[in-house]
Amino acid sequence: MRDVDLIGGTLIMRHTKGDKQRLVPMHPLLTEILERYRLTMGIVGVPDAWLFPVFVKDESMTPKDTQHWFEKILRLAEISSPGRKKHERSPCLHCMRHVFVFKSFAKAEKAGRKIDDSVPYLSIYLGHDSLQETEKYMKFSSELFPVAMELFSDYSADVFPEVAHET
Q1: Residues 109, 115: contact at Cβ < 8 Å?
Q2: How confident is the model at residue 114 (pLDDT cuts 50, 70, 90)?
Q3: Gyration radius from the chain CA atoms
């Protein structure tokens, strides 16, 4: 709990990607949920309490525990990965990072900000060592960026003129 700031609405993330430490802001709704969770768990005023303990032993969840619960949630939600093709992934925890990045880019575009201006902030937020690492997340999707597609189409209309050909 010492890494959870419910007043400031931030989490201290220790030993994250690249063994870095950083502050992560929480959505106010998540902060409210964690406040209620803390009361329910009886860990108010207990800074050494684990936020998500393993109940069998008084320790934090391991990556294996986290994966187990993620898979259980997928099963309960009836989310499966039927007949995957080569190079396709089933739902995974890391996919959530990709979804977060895509939604962040879409939100920036909708707010009128250039996507390129968002990359440095997301790079730091994600714990990347370089902008190139963040750019790997940017698989351009016309569905996510309809405004950009329309602008590009308008821009390129004169660059690539229609060619009339005889058959």
Answers
A1: yes
A2: confident
A3: 22
